Amino acid sequence: MTALPKTNSLTFRLIAGAAVWSVLGLLVGGFILSGVFRTAVQESFDSRLTFDLEGLVAAAQVETPDRVALAGRFADPRYERIFSGWYWQILPEGLPAALPQRSRSLWDFTLVPQNLTLDNTMFWGFADGPDNQRVRVLSRQISFPAPSPGDDPRIFQFVVGGDIGEIEANVAIFNRSLIWSFAALGLGLIAAILIQVRVGLVPLRRVSEALARIREGRARNSEGDFPAEIEPLVTELNSLIAHSAEVVGRARTHVANLAHFLKTPLTVIANEVANEKGPLADSVGRQVTVMRRQVDHYLARARAAGALDVLGSRTEVAPVLSDLARILPRMHPD
After folding, report:
1. 10-59 vs 165-200: helix axis angle to the nearest 10?
2. Is the pLDDT assigned to residue 319 strictly greater than 70?
3. What would the pLDDT profile of 34-58 be if each residue is shown by its tens digit?
4. Which string of DSSP letters, residue by residue, matches 269-298?
């Protein structure tokens, strides 16, 4: 099982940062696309109302002072189905007692436009429709010529409307598709980011493995082809390793030289003490023996270290410990 990256790791920071920006970008893009789609659907809906209103006006002919005849020239199945969400009505102006003409879909309901706004010669607004519908309405006053000289022109208010629930339904369908699409895209982006970061950080893992090989004695420096961004780091590490080896080597040389310098005076002292008798001579002799043993020990270590690389050398510990384990019980049976 792959361990999760630590929160203070470079992998976590790269993945988390890219993921957060990707999710934010998708959210902003989703809101923008949803808004653009809603605007497009709204404009298409309004264009349809405008087209229907123009068709309704074109089909109308004054029949009586309070009524117009469509003469079958305005036939749309949407306006025939009861409570279909598409309605029209025609109301004569100046005749409060006159009943409005309605589409079959409106049945006996009357639309009362509210919050009207003027756009050129038409009024846009909303109205409460049948079956708790919210209706987008388009209203326009049309003046027909007087049927005979001396009569006043006939003015009628033409209203067409459509249930905005259709807009909301289309937007909801689009939003669901958008959410699922962006969710899949977001998961794909995060997966791509994860792969990209993992692949991008491979050279750093190779540097770590190279250092582990040096520590274990399987290599003397970092070798291999590295990206241009990592190559200076590898070069500096190799230079540092070489410098450390040189410093440690010089230190061991100085230790060996010091031991050699001490060995001759100790030999002279030992020879002088050997010719003397007494407690002082015995004490000095014992200390000289201890010092010579220590000098010989460090000379041996210096010679052994000189035969090996400063870094990258390995010692098999298991065989030595095995020999000690066999010898010690014999030396100290108790």
Report:
1. 160
2. yes
3. 999 999 999 999 999 999 998 888 8
4. HHHHHHT--SHHHHHHHHHHHHHHHHHHHH
**Is residue 106 a contact partner of residue 128, using CB atoms and an 8 Å limit?**
no
d(CA 148, CA 156): 18
Indicate if the alpha-carbon torsion angle 102, 106, 111, 115 is positive or negative: negative
> Which residue has 């590898």 as its token pair?
234
Residue 294 CB neighbours (<10 A): 13
pLDDT band with cut points at 50, 70 and 90 for residue 310: very low
Question: Are 197 and 224 a contacting pair, CB within 8 Å?
Answer: no
Q: What contacts 106, CB < 8 A, 6 or more positions away?
A: 87, 88, 89, 130
What is the chain's alpha carbon radius of gyration, rounded to the nearest angstrom? 50
% of the chain at pLDDT higher than 90:
22
User: Helix-strand-coil percent breakdown of the chain, rounded to 5?
Assistant: 60, 15, 25
Higher pLDDT, 329 or 166: 166
**With 70 as the cut, is the pLDDT of residue 239 above it?**
yes
User: Tokens 């066999």 — which residue?
Assistant: 326
Going from the C-alpha of 124 to that of each of 52, 137, 162, 298, the distances in angstroms are 14, 6, 12, 103
The reply to whether the predicted model has a pTM over 0.90 is no
